[in-house]
């Protein structure tokens, strides 16, 4: 083998060859703004990959947590919306 070929072979042997790559995200922070009976609300939750929706908080547009009755009224709809939320390139903020 000529010197040039040997150097080329050594260079090729020192470079990694990637067979696959993946970015894995364990958690997503979800946000939801909505109107209900003429009032604005916001909700947040966490989606844990493989475990589902967790830690849902709901508050009104004055940033006050809801009383128990209103929370109980909104919670099933908010949870359902979060569970059906399409997490894709269009909805992810990087």
Radius of gyration based on Cα positions: 25 Å
Shape: rod-shaped
Average per-residue pLDDT, rounded, comes to 86
Please work out how many helical segments DSSP would assign.
Answer: 2
SSE string, helix = H, strand = E? HEEEH
Strand ordering within the main sheet? 1-2-3
Beta-strand share of residues = 25-35%
Give the class from helix and strand content and strand pairing: alpha+beta
Question: Low-confidence parts lasting 5 or more residues at pLDDT below 50?
Answer: none
- The helical percent reads 25-40%
The largest pleated sheet is described as: 3 strands, antiparallel
> How many β-strand stretches?
3
Distance from N terminus to C terminus (CA atoms, Å) equals 50 Å
Short description:
Helix content is 30%, strand content 31%. The protein is built from 2 helices and 3 strands. It starts with a helix and ends in a 10-residue tail after the last helix.
How would you characterize this protein structure?
By secondary structure, the protein is α+β, with helices and mostly antiparallel strands. The chain has a domain of 63 residues. Helix content is 30%, strand content 31%. The protein contains two helices and three strands. The chain has a three-stranded antiparallel beta sheet with strand order 1-2-3, with helices on one face. A hairpin with a 3-residue loop joins strand 2 and strand 3. The N and C termini lie far apart (50 Å). The model has no long low-confidence stretch (mean pLDDT 86).
